[in-house]
Amino acid sequence: GQQVMQIPQYQHVQEGEDFTTYCNSSTTLSNIQWYKQRPGGHPVFLIQLVKSGEVKKQKRLTFQFGEAKKNSSLHITATQTTDVGTYFCAGPTYGGATNKLIFGTGTLLAVQP
Amino acid sequence: NAGVTQTPKFQVLKTGQSMTLQCAQDMNHNSMYWYRQDPGMGLRLIYYSASEGTTDKGEVPNGYNVSRLNKREFSLRLESAAPSQTSVYFCASSRQGADWAQYFGPGTRLTVL
User: Which of A51, A99, A108 would best serve as a mutation to test chain B binding (most B beta carbons within 10 A)?
Assistant: First the structure.
């Protein structure tokens, strides 16, 4: 079945270091979304990418959608303690309704001050 | 606006007991979802409702039933709880259109003994 995998599962960085998480889908995606979940909290929508090769920035966060629309990445420049949490990518289920998502396995980011 | 609300926040059940998790949204969204989140498993879709009056199974529907009471409310029922249903349950909603972002409630932490 359709799978969305993320690597790494866990990353520990010193504050100020950069961080990247990668998302890979077994099928081509019409769009990809990214969510952040703080410890003990709920997922919060960050961004949606639609176009092949699209790059979007939100302050220190840079999101990319691959040319083949099967992979994506999230890069954080100069991490801060407020970046702590789990980052999930999510894409529409193949052949299904656009609003039915399959979530990646997530990357847990720990930031040491 | 409250966004997406869920009740209860915490619940402990004994094996075989039943309960209903309530979810409501005030964003006039058409689509609503129920997910469960287990450690290391990410978010898995239980059921979803694309619009009022319709429901459909997700990835892990066994042991659950849902009711889309009206456009605002989407409930999840466990008829006979099992320890394997110990999890954190999130309700989410989304609008239809160019942005398919899902907005999550705070979650219900359920323990089945």
Answer: A99
